[in-house]
Amino acid sequence: MDLEQIRNRYLKFFERQGHVIIPSASLIPENDPTTLFTGAGMQPILPYLLGAVHPEGKRLVNSQKCFRAEDMDEVGDNRHTTFFEMLGNWSLGDYFKNEQLEWFFTFLTDDLGLSPERLFVTVFAGESKLNLPKDTDSVTIWKELFKKKGIEAKDIEIGTVENGSEVGMQGGRIFYYGGKKNWWSRVRAPENMPVGEPGGPDSEVFFEFKDVAHDPKYGKECHPNCDCGRFLEIGNSVFMQYIKKPDGQFGQLPQRNVDFGGGLERIATVLANTPDIFKVDVLAKSISILEKRSGTSYEKSSDDLKRPFRIIADHIRAAVFMGADGVVPGNKDRGYILRRLVRRALFNAKRIGLTDTEWLPALVDLYADTYRDFYAEIDEHQEEIRSMLIDEAEKFYKTLEAGLKQFERLARKENTLTAADIFDLYQSYGFPEELSIELAQERNVPVDRKELAVHKEKHRELSRVASEVKFKGGLVDTSEMSVKYHTATHLLNQALRQVLGMHIYQKGSNITPERLRFDFPHDKKMSPEEIATVEEIVNQKIKEGLPVGNTSMNLKDAYVAGVVGVFGERYPEVVTVYRIGNPEVGFFSQEICGGPHVKNTSELGQKFKIIKEEAISQGVRRIKAVLV
């Protein structure tokens, strides 16, 4: 089965179990200062895991596009990618362990046809000092599920991953892990979680590649969490039921949740019974294009020579998805990550003999053709993406030769490549750091990694401070018109909810002094009558001269009071709520927001007019509006 078939089977399977299929959120998180990209399926769902009411109900399922920049340096082996799709299903205070584990096991074995003999699972060993119990419930459920398939599943105490490499499998099928393993929160280890952070035990499912022999360099014995490649994790069911309290212990969340994530590409890999993710579906087709263009065989190459193929295939796919969500190459934030991806791909293209950009449009078109049906944004922006990446490639090639000459000069002149050398090569010639390091390794030129680490930490700290300022909440541009448009966005949000339904919420917003832009979930084009009604409601509220005020509220109290939040936002325990209207007759709008706003809607003055309403992805619409 290809990726599309597996994705559709998963979504339909859980739809049959009463789940509502929801669209993927953007790779660009809304107003989230903690990360540049959406890196997990649960990120946009977090407010609802904490107790907010999701407009689609308590059972949700989707396939979320994800990108993890921290994995960029790992790409090149047979299993790491920066971009991936995360299959996810959620129970928001509804079903729990029994249903989740049975459904996922049934999906793998009955629906996809995987042999249960190839499946192994891990569970949480507990943490006594934090009063977190051992997850014996999941073990009981797993034993019964395997028993129905005629398999006696023995449970084994492993402890830490390091201990696993000493004690090995011991004939087990269910393994208890402690430490950071089999506990999920955004900061992983339970003892490191901040106050108010949700988390819980998880149960991971691994597939065994029987043809892969254990490599002793990863430890004396093999076990499910061994890095030798014999086992591959394909799904993780998180039972999110705890929240960190001020005393350092854990209390129960208002509701017990299930947060499942499974790598689509990984599941495709095990169905193909190959440990190499780049032999699967669209990635394999991408490599086939590179083989034909370069005249070099991927299959006959050593692992070291397979690296360039894998890096190119992964990085260009990630670049296509970034471009579809509006990221453009640049020197900071998301633009810098995109530029690194493209330049790293181009640098590796030279390693397999590709010295022009003729192969690049072919890869862009392959990815667009593969994903256009599910991710409409790629279809809509295919031409822009192709032009953008070719332009970036041509810019890089113009500076590459000059940069290589400068590198050779430094390599001959210096006994060690310093951090200053590396960053000068980037600033002057566009050399990403890892390219300089790879070149140095090829030429046996030592790199002062200690100095580089210090330099990177200083740069990371400066970036963090800049991000805190940039993403402090609310509006960055506080000019008079931007403040007016910010307030008008609140009126628009509520008007849309009244006209189209209470499923409307903000998925994205962009304010300039010239106009507002508002993204929201809706599965069909607005009619002229609906647009006119929304405009009429907003203009009526401007005419009424409603007061605009703000108050601080506990997050839970805000949700109980019906306050609306931004989809995907991670909120603190106490939030600022802006209210439009008179409390005696009921507020017209209540939203969590950082401000600023006008004091009264009459200050908007002008007439509100929607100038464009369009689709930007599957199930997501965009409005652009002005005050005229």
From TrEMBL:
Residues 1-628 form the Alanyl-transfer RNA synthetases family profile domain. Keywords: Aminoacyl-tRNA synthetase, ATP-binding, Ligase, Nucleotide-binding, Protein biosynthesis, RNA-binding, tRNA-binding. This is alanine--tRNA ligase. GO terms for biological process: alanyl-tRNA aminoacylation. NCBIfam families: PRK01584.1. One of its GO terms (molecular function) is alanine-tRNA ligase activity. Belongs to the class-II aminoacyl-tRNA synthetase family. One of its GO terms (cellular component) is cytosol. PANTHER family: ALANINE--TRNA LIGASE, CYTOPLASMIC (PTHR11777:SF9), ALANYL-TRNA SYNTHETASE (PTHR11777). Signal peptide: none annotated. It holds the Pfam family tRNA_SAD. The keyword Iron does not apply. Its EC number is 6.1.1.7. The keyword Iron does not apply. It is an enzyme of class 6 (ligase). Transmembrane segments: none annotated.
